[in-house]
Amino acid sequence: MEQKKLLIITYYWPPAGGPGVQRWLKFVKYLPDYNIQPIVYIPENPTYPIMDTGLESEVSDKAIILKNKITEPYGFAAVFSKNKTKKISSGIIPNQKKQSFLEKMLLWVRGNLFIPDARFLWVKPSVNYLKKYIQENNIDTIVTSGPPHSLHLIGLQLKKELDIKWFADFRDPWTTIGYHKALKLSSYAEKKHKALEKEVLNAADTIIVTSKTTKTEFEAITSKPIEVITNGYDVEKVAKQPLDEKFTLAHIGSFLSERNPKMLWQSLQELIAENTAFKKDFRLKLIGATSQDVLDTIAAFKLEDYVQNLGYVSHQEAVEHQRKSQILLLIEINSEATKSILPGKLFEYLVSERPIIAIGPKDSDFEEIITSTNTGVFFTYDEKDRLKELLLKYYEDYKNHTLKAHAVGLQQYSRKSLTQQLANLI
Q1: Whether the predicted pLDDT of 72 surpasses 70
Q2: What are the start-end ranges of the E strands in 159-270?
Q3: What pLDDT, on the 0 to 100 scale, is given for residue 306?
C-alpha cells in the first residue's frame, strides 16, 4: 500500500527549544509507523527565543524537511532591546504595573500591528512556495500547527486555492489565551483577531485541540468537527536518576508573573519556622525562565536562601530533574482563560514517578488528568491549609523513604498512542 503524504506546516522545530517543539516532533517520529510520510515545512532563518540543539537528534530520518525564508519583525525590534524582545517573543509578558515605556510600546506593536502575530509576513511567501510543491507532489492533506496562528492563515489560503483536506491543530487557544488581554489591543485589532479565528475555524475540514475546554470554546464558533488529541509523553532515554538528597520541590518551565502562588510560599515559610528538620532539608528548584516578580515574592517570604535557580536547561536535563526531584510543581494562572491549558510538561511529569503538586483555577482540565492517573494532588489558589498539610505529609514520606507516585492508566497519553489517534483521523 502506497504511503500517504502529509504536509505539516509548523514554526517551531529543532534547534528550537521549549514546549512548542515537542508535539509535532514526536508525531513526525511515529507517523511513518502508520504508513504516513511526514513532510515538514519550517522557516529557514527563524528567531527562536529558546534553543535546544539536543533535540535535533530526535528528528525522524524518514521526514522530508522543507525550508523557506521568513522575515520577522522581532529582528528589527531587537535593535531597541534584544532582551525585552526575546522575553515578549517567548510569551513572558512583564507585569503590567512594572512595564517600562519600551515594553509597553513593544506589546502594543505586537498586538496591534502584527496580526495575528509576528510571523504574519511569512504567510504570502509560504502560500506561493507550498502551492507549487503541493501540486507537483500530489499532496492532498495538510496540517497547520499554531501558535503562531499566522500558520493557520497559510492553511486558510491554500484551502481556498487548492482541493486539499486541511487540519488546523491548536496547541493553545487563540483569542482566549491568557496573554491575549495583555497585548493592549485596540477594538479594531480585537475584532480582526476574532474574525480571523472564526474564518479559520469554519474553513478547516477538522480542528484538532489539546483539551476539552478548548473544544467547548470552539464549538460556540464553528460546527466543523473538533477532535481532542492531548500532548503526551515519550519513552525518554534517561539513565535512572538517584533522588535528590534534599527535600526538593522543582518547578520546570516558564514561571510567569501571574503564576505566583502566594499560598505556596506562605505554607513553606510557616513550615520552615515551625519545623527545624524541614528547614534543614527543604530546597526549591527553579528550572526555566522565572519572572522577576516571582523571584521578588519568594524573597518577600524569606525563601531566597532555599532557592536553586538553574535557569533554562536542555530538554534532556529537564527530564533528568523531573526524575530526581522529590516533588514536581505544576502551576497555572488563576484565571478562567487558563482552565483549558494542558502544559506539555504535565505528561512528562506523569511518567516521572514523582508526586505532583498542581495549583490552578477550579475545574482546570489538568486537575482531571492528575486525579484520574493518581499522580498528584490539585489545589485551587485558596486552599492554603490543605496544601500545607500535604507538604508536611510528603515531607514525612520523604523522611521515611516512601515518597513516590503510583500512577495508573498512563498508556493513553503515550506519544505512540496519540499518533495512532492522529493517523486514524487523517
Answers
A1: yes
A2: 165-170, 206-209, 226-228, 247-252
A3: 98
For residues 363 and 336, the answer to whether their CB atoms sit within 8 Å is: no
**Nearest-5° angle of CA 398, CA 289, CA 354?**
25
Work out the number of other CB atoms within 10 angstroms of the CB of residue 336. 13
Which residues, 6 or more positions from 76, have their beta carbon under 8 angstroms from its beta carbon? none
DSSP 326-342: SEEEEE--SSGGGTT--
Burial degree of 167 (CB within 10 A; 0-12, 13-18, 19+) = buried
What was the pLDDT predicted at 18? 82
Taking the C-alpha atoms of residue 366 and residue 388, their distance in angstroms, rounded to an integer, is: 21
Q: Are 166 and 204 in contact (CB under 8 A)?
A: yes
What are the Cα distances from residue 52, in Å, to 9, 13, 21, 275? 20, 10, 10, 40
Q: Edge-to-edge strand order for the sheet containing 165-170?
A: 64-68, 36-43, 4-9, 141-146, 165-170, 206-209, 226-228
Residue in 9, 363, 24, 288 with CA at minimum distance from that of residue 159:
9
Q: Mean of the per-residue pLDDT values for the chain?
A: 90
Grid coordinates representing 361 are: 483555577
| Calpha distance 119→180 (Å, rounded) | 16
Contact by Cβ (8 Å): 41, 73? no
| Interval 398-414: pLDDT, tens | 999 999 999 999 999 99
Alpha helices in 80-230 (DSSP H): 82-89, 101-112, 123-136, 150-161, 187-203, 212-219
What letter represents residue 114's amino acid?
F
